[in-house]
Design goal:
Two copies of one chain form a homodimer. Helices cover about 35% and strands about 25% of the residues of chain A. In chain A, β7 and β8 form a beta hairpin. In chain A, α5 runs parallel beside α7.
């Protein structure tokens, strides 16, 4: 007998039919002799509907009250799923975040899980109940309802799996697993059987968001085997774990990220500390910088380019412009018609020439590279946004055809 | 400085505009130097919508899961009201039933309040917060979410008022107070300034449901002064308290109840214990009997007539028919085209002829009386449902014009 944690996102439970579908998956797993803990998100658009209600009344409402409001979403979905499980003739117990023992920090709307007291979950499992837990939510030491922020339900599921030493944590979603490229765009994209935590983390940050990063980090830390699979297709998905058999493969995927903007500061005086001062202006505003490129200085001047999330782009320019120009820079350029294309693979570490192969594919497709960034298991390039899909296809076919 | 508990029902908070309206009432009361605890129901049709979702999935869902589902309704409304209060520049703290200290029995969907630990409410009041409490809900000793059943939010409000020795408990609703008759039907119906707990209790059971009975009983027990008033009209409402100045008035109101059915068992053998056996069949099914009329027996036979709620009528007949007929009764007749018209007033006790005056009004209007029932402060008659409105007008004008 195994202990399996299953997590279902909002689209998987969006209406009565989908809720019944999830109940069937869950009870099938239970009927095979497993203990089952199910973590559920709010139904379909519930969260957005609740946010709209709040916006209409007070767009500047306190975070505490936002959490109180949003947590009602999962409360509805856990009750409905428990009812669906009962309908199929099994015993179910739904538990809110605080009932399931989720103690969090008091950082409302983006709380961190401090610990999970799984006693009530275990008690219900011992009574042969399928336990349905509200994802995304917990309780602070002060006894206030908190939420974990975006993708929080994935994290809730992994946290339970870690606290209970579960044998497997299945993340059901609307895709069938992790692919070598976006299957809607690249015809012969392949579903990966396995992928390592690190590769998954790189893919998640690169816009191929199948799993929330915090949940993958937590799974890695506690060695929780994850499976990403679809709640609609009856097929095995992609296993995420430490060591994979796939490591001989050069790369595990090609990812595209169009939520990116490039900022170039031209003619920066070549004096010590200027880059530090520039980037500290951005970190003061909590703006994350991704790729950084600095030209070799000449005539006492240099150019510094970097990328940020598109949504923070204008703000980043505003934070820098006056300061840099008054300190001798010529101008600050902004371009959000760019895309970041990345290849990820643990195999890269031991294989030379992976980056070269990627560049060759782009050259063959006559695509200009604006910036390059590399890490141990990743190569990213910045290109014109209009070339993005062509670039993904070209690179994918170079490596996988 | 006074402590005032204010309760708002679902229609009072049904949309953003109404929520802001409630926030204005609440903050005005606070700005006048009072401590304010607000108890709110779920918005407008939320509860019905949630029930519909549950019905679609599993009409026979466990009561525990029904409570889990329904309690989400008030969670949404307390968060929205707190946000609206913040919008007006005041501090608000929303609290769920369990956070507000509502310990209840574990009778899901109709739990009884055991006690209210008001520490968290008091703590928030001490910090000059307006406290917004989810009505209708609590927590059992096992840590499960419970709900109090119909009208539960009124009871929640009175329970807080009792536990905190509040100076006043205001029940805001969509009528302006308690009237001498239904103001939509009877033109010159008058709003009462005051009414006693006992009169209010009789009116509530008689279909003039302004306040939930449990809440009035609790208010009486703890001598909590209630005020029934409208959240839309800026007018004082009706005060419900022990002794009223109005007791000199003969009656305080005329009420109509059309949720009633008459059952007559004809030709019951005149032997001891037969009535007991008959009514115990009904109480076994939890069917409440209201008016009972027994004819004087002759030829060893008698007729027994009684009324039940219309929704339980057919069930009552089914429970009795075979048994009574096989024990010698001739037949069981059923009629749900009836209405119960009642007059209520503490003044009756000391004034003879009140019932006579009522019967005279009905006689003048040529309305036939089928059954009569009296208590110390009430006279009820059963008549044809088609005469109901005419009867109310005739009686009202006899006493009040």
């Amino acid at each position: 007998m195994s202990l399996i944690v299953q997590k279902f996102g909002g689209t998987s439970v969006r209406d009565a039919e989908r809720v019944m579908n999830v109940a069937r998956i869950v009870t099938d797993t239970f009927a095979q002799g497993n203990d089952v803990v199910v973590v559920v998100s709010a139904q379909g658009d519930t969260t957005d509907d609740l946010i709209a209600k709040a916006e209409e009344i007070n767009p500047k409402a306190s975070r505490r009250e936002k959490d109180m409001l949003l947590a009602a979403g999962e409360q509805i979905s856990i009750a409905l799923l428990a009812m669906a499980i009962e309908k199929l003739g099994y015993h179910a117990t739904s538990l809110l975040g605080w009932q399931a023992g989720f103690e969090t920090s008091s950082a409302h709307t983006s709380a961190r899980i401090r610990r999970v007291n799984v006693e009530r979950i275990r008690e219900a499992l011992d009574k042969k109940n399928i336990v349905v837990v509200a994802g995304f939510q917990g309780i602070s030491r002060r006894g206030d309802i908190t939420t974990l922020g975006r993708g929080g339900s994935d994290t809730s599921a992994v946290a339970i799996a870690a606290a209970m030493h579960a044998d497997l944590c299945q993340i059901y979603t609307d895709v069938e697993g992790v692919y070598t490229a976006d299957p809607r765009k690249v015809e012969n994209a392949k579903k990966l059987k396995e992928i390592s935590y690190d590769e998954m983390l790189e893919l998640a940050t690169l816009g191929a968001q199948v799993l929330n990063n915090r949940s993958v980090e937590m799974a890695k830390k506690y060695s929780i085997e994850l499976e990403v699979l679809s709640s609609l297709a009856k097929a095995s998905g992609t296993i995420v774990k430490e060591k994979t058999k796939m490591e001989k493969m050069l790369i595990s995927g090609v990812a595209k990220d169009t939520d990116v903007a490039r900022i170039s500061v031209i003619g920066v005086p070549n004096i010590p500390g200027i880059a530090f001062k520039m980037f500290s202006k951005l970190s003061a505003k909590d703006i994350n910088v991704d790729i950084i490129l600095q030209s070799i200085g000449h005539d006492g001047k240099k150019d510094i380019s970097f990328t940020v999330a598109k949504s923070r782009g204008k703000e980043a320019v505003a934070a820098l412009e006056d300061y840099m120009v008054s300190h001798g820079a010529k101008e600050v350029l902004y371009d959000d018609e760019v895309a970041k294309i990345s290849i990820v693979g643990a195999g890269m570490e031991s294989h030379a020439g992976v980056a070269t192969k990627m560049f060759e594919a782009l050259y063959d497709a006559q695509i200009n590279i604006q910036m390059i960034s590399t890490s141990e298991i990743k190569v990213s390039v910045l290109i014109d946004i209009n070339d993005a899909d062509k670039a993904v296809k070209a690179i994918h076919s170079k490596f996988f055809d």
